[in-house]
Amino acid sequence: MSGADFFGVEELNPYEHKESQPDKLKAVAEHELLEKSFAAAGIEVVKVPPPVNCQDGIYTANWGLCWQNKFVLSSLPNLRQAEEPYAKQVLSDLGYEIISPPGRFSGQGDCLPCGNYLFVGSNYRTDKTVHQFLKNLYPGEVIAVETVPAIDSDGKPIINKITGWPDSYFYDLDLALAVLSPELIAWCPEAFTLNSRAKIAALPIEKIEVSLDEAINGFACNLVSNGEQVIMSSRTPLLQSAVEARGFKTITPEIHELVKGGGYIRCCSLTLD
Prior knowledge:
Blueprint: H1 24-40, E1 64-67, E2 70-73, H2 83-93, E3 97-99, E4 111-114, E5 117-120, H3 129-137, E6 141-144, E7 177-181, E8 184-187, H4 194-201, E9 206-209, H5 212-217, E10 224-225, E11 229-231, H6 237-245, E12 249-251
Parallel strand pairs: 2-3, 5-6, 8-9, 11-12
Antiparallel strand pairs: 1-2, 4-5, 7-8, 10-11
C-alpha cells in the first residue's frame, strides 16, 4: 500500500468528476482505516510512501502483477505514467525480477489470479497483445475476458477524453469480478460481453452473482479476500450476505472519499506473492 497524500481526481474513468475532488484529510483517514482492516484480517501490509504528485498513486493494484519472484510492470494511462518508474523501483527493492509487457497493461487491477486461472481484462486498460505474453509467461491458464463499454446517448462506445482509450464502468476487471478463494469467485454477469459471460459461466469453479447495481454503485467486486475473511464494501448487502453464507467473515470499512477516483478497496492494495 502507498498513501492518499496526493490523491485527486482527473477524470480518467467514468466515475471521476473534477468538480468532486476528495477531502484530503478524510481520504488519508479512510486509507489508514483500510490498512487497519487488512491487519485485522491477518494480512501483512508493506507500506511505501506514495509517488510524489501522482493523483492515482494510491491505487497500487495497477502497478503490476506479482507472482513468485516476478513482477510484470504495468503500462498506465498518460496521466499515470509517472507512477511506473516508482513502482519499478519499489518492487525491485523488494527483490522482484522486473518484466515489461508488450502493450498497455493495468496490473492486478485487470489481472486476477484464481487458483490455476489468471483472469485478464481486454480493450480498456490492457491490450489483447498482452494476453499471449502472459500465456507464455504465467504457469496457469489465462482466461481473457471483456466487459461492456460505456455508451453515450447515441448508443456509441465512449472514448475517454483524457486517455484517448475506450471507456467502461468496468475499465478494470476488479470492478466486475472478485476472487474469494481459489475455488470461488463473485462476478457481475451483466458487466461482461455475451462471449465473455459464457466463458466464465462454463468454468468449473463456484460463482456468486453480483447485481449490476451493487457492482457499479457499491463497488461490490472491488474487495480483498484472504480465503477466510473478506474486506469489502459496506454498501453491498446482497453480496455481503452471500459471502457470509459461504462461511466467510466480512470487514466493511466506510469508504467515501477514495471512491471518487474510480477505485476502491482492492485498487488500494497490490498483492505480493
